[in-house]
Amino acid sequence: MLFFAESEETLAQEGSGATVARRRLGRALRKLREKANIRLEQAAEEVVCSIAKISRQENGLAPMWPSDVRLLLDLYGLTDPVRRAQLEEWAVRTGTRGVRAGRWSNPEQRHRATPAGGPL
To answer: Given this model, what pLDDT does residue 94 score?
Structure first.
């Protein structure tokens, strides 16, 4: 069952690629953020990113990491496991494949940034 889609017909028209997943996920997250009365600044602080990045993601212009989606869902107070799983699946479909590449391969490392040129 899809919780965030406008209709089954809309889903059929949109398709199932990464762009569609980004748009669906972005719309759903914006609705949840607004319902929770959370500002973009608060969301960006939670994910440790810029306000612009959150805005791009909500507008379907950038992929999202499943770990970031989980942080936002916690912040927005979404506890329904079925809805959370659906949104996390959409995050995987945005093109990130659920794994951070390069420096942030472990999401916990974001909070332990090293000086430029230092060991990772």
So the answer is: 85
How many domains, the chain?
1
| DSSP assignment letter at 112 | S
Domain that holds residue 90: 15-98
Q: Determine the Cα–Cα distance for residues 97 and 11; give it in Å rounded to an integer.
A: 21
Q: Would 107 be classed as within a structural domain?
A: no
pLDDT digits (tens, 9 = 90+) for 91-102: 998 876 544 444
Report if residue 70 sits inside a domain.
yes
53: CATH = 1.10.260.40
CA distance 11 to 23: 11
Q: Give, in order, the Cα–Cα distances in Å from 42 to each of 5, 30, 62, 72.
A: 26, 13, 19, 10
Q: Phi/psi of residue 22, each to 5°?
A: -60, -45
Residues in Cβ contact with 55 at an 8 Å cutoff, skipping those fewer than 6 apart = 40
Q: Which of 27-41, 79-93, 97-111 has the lowest mean pLDDT?
A: 97-111
Domain membership flag for residue 116: no
